[in-house]
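Before relying on records like the one below, remember that each one covers exactly one chain. Contacts with other chains, cofactors or solvent are not represented anywhere in the record.
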Amino acid sequence: MEDEKQDSRRITLLLHEWKQGKEDAFNELFPYVYDELRRRASAYLRNERQGHTLQTTALVNEAYIKLVDKVGVEWEDRNHFFAIAAQAMRRILVDHARKRKRKKRGDKHENLPLDEARYLVPQEESVDLIALDEALTRLEKFDPRQSRIVELKYFGGMTLDETADVLGVSNVTVKRDWNIAKTWLRQQLSK
């Protein structure tokens, strides 16, 4: 536990140093965040369809490249970093599904089982990742926080506490919004 706190403080320090222009700070950051990014990506991809062409390492590397290219981000702390990483992973996964769809020339969207699909549809079904992305975009228009909660918990693999910390709200608020968002998404994805 103490090592986690120390790593979290080190990550925050390196993010602040990088923000202040110390270029080596981001390279030094990599060993601290790589395992966690890999764990989150692996958990997400574990339940994907067999033969999924995007591997954990590729997802982590692509996300990390997107993070390096984030100029002007006011990095706050470890949780903020992983929240931005969740956005990057979402974009990569949706882009990957869209490319695959284009290759199939008109076939239905790629259906991908969700890591936490129990809250969206029955477990034996799979969810259309593109449809999920589109539903989250619609949700964001009328409740940005609920959309962000789904993104952080699903794509970022964040806990309730981490999500509350990133959003600056209470755990009770996250839990309530999470339940509302799950119900709304279930309805949207079953149409």
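Residues 19 and 72 are 8 Å apart (CA to CA).
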